[in-house]
Amino acid sequence: MMLTLPPRSSSVPLLFTFALLAAALPGCRKSEMPPSTRPAPEVQVARPLVRQVTEYTYFTGRIEAPESVDIQARVTGYLDTVDFVPGADVKKGQRLFLIDPRPYQAALDRAVGQVQLSEARLKLATADYARAVAVAKTPGAISQQDVDKYAAARDESAAAVAAAKAASESARLNVEFTRILSPVDGVVGRNLLTVGNLIKQDQTLLTTVVSENPMYAYFDIDEHTLLRVQRLLQQGKITRREEKEGFPVELGLADEGDRYPHEGRIDFINNRIDPTTGTLQIRGTFPNPSLKYKNLHLLTPGMFVRVRLPIGAPRQAMLVPRKAIGTDQGNKYVLTVNAQDVVEYQPVILGPEQPDGLQVIRPMKMIETPTGLRPLGENETTKEKTLDSIGPQDRVIVSGLQRAKPGTKVTPRNPPVQ
Prior knowledge:
With 418 residues, the protein is α+β, with helices and mostly antiparallel strands. It is built from five helices and 24 strands. A six-stranded antiparallel β-barrel has the order 2-11-14-13-12-15. The protein has a four-stranded antiparallel sheet with strand order 3-10-8-5, with no helix packed on it.
């Protein structure tokens, strides 16, 4: 940089000139200094975890009781008593309601009297017929027509006895139906009517009773999953014990996070796929433990649940934290750090999620080309040697991904022990 000094005759003071020089010289020195080097960004790395895992598919299901009964009356009458505590456990055959039985008891008594009357008439008709048969042995004492009339009267009386007994049985059933009993073991709901209300036969809903242990979980699986299970059956990878006792299935509740602690067995597979949804209804049976508080149980009919279905036998797999997985135009990848601490891009294939925040990954097959490694296509075949995109000894970046770019150098650090 060159500066021109003003002539001595200038009106600018000499002190101002030297001030300009002092301000200009530091700027010249600064522009000539080399730029400062920035340190490599720090990232946290960890090696993939290798362990036995089971592949799962996930569904949403709904809990239903194996037995659910709407309690209705089989006779018409006025409600006399309510004989249960709402929400309590009830046993099969326990009385829940009583309809006023007096009108039906009177009808039963009348029917019983009619049976006795018919039996007396039958006794007389039988005796008359026997006498007619005895008299007929004397020629000319009685005509055959009269004998036939006595026989018909006897048969008519016998038929009247049968009809009277049937009417008596119907009346007896009506008296029995005034006692409304629980048809199953379970938990009873609240009484929908109180004492004194009119109950109509086969119309008035009184309460409900649902069974409580075990419980059903219904869910729908897609056609692809169904075919995978069928292939396992075809290949003999499902044991005879699973075939006999039912395929295992796991269940998780809304407050259990990503855990599925409840184990059950599939006991029903529908006979056709729903053409509108392409799914097949499956049912699993699960034990329903008691909470030991006011007859409460863990699983309640109508509850939404998460269902996890294991596919195949456990196998060795590599796992990384889910936060270490990136997405590039639909393709999944992880970033690794090589021996020179340089970031590398590694495509991977995702496996099933695990309940501890980990994700199963499978390496992609890579081919070496003049410009570097590239993934082997899904239907591509090659005679060249292939390499796995990632292995158990690679260092995967698990934190600091925003500071790591493929091809740049970083400072790797191990994550803190938790």
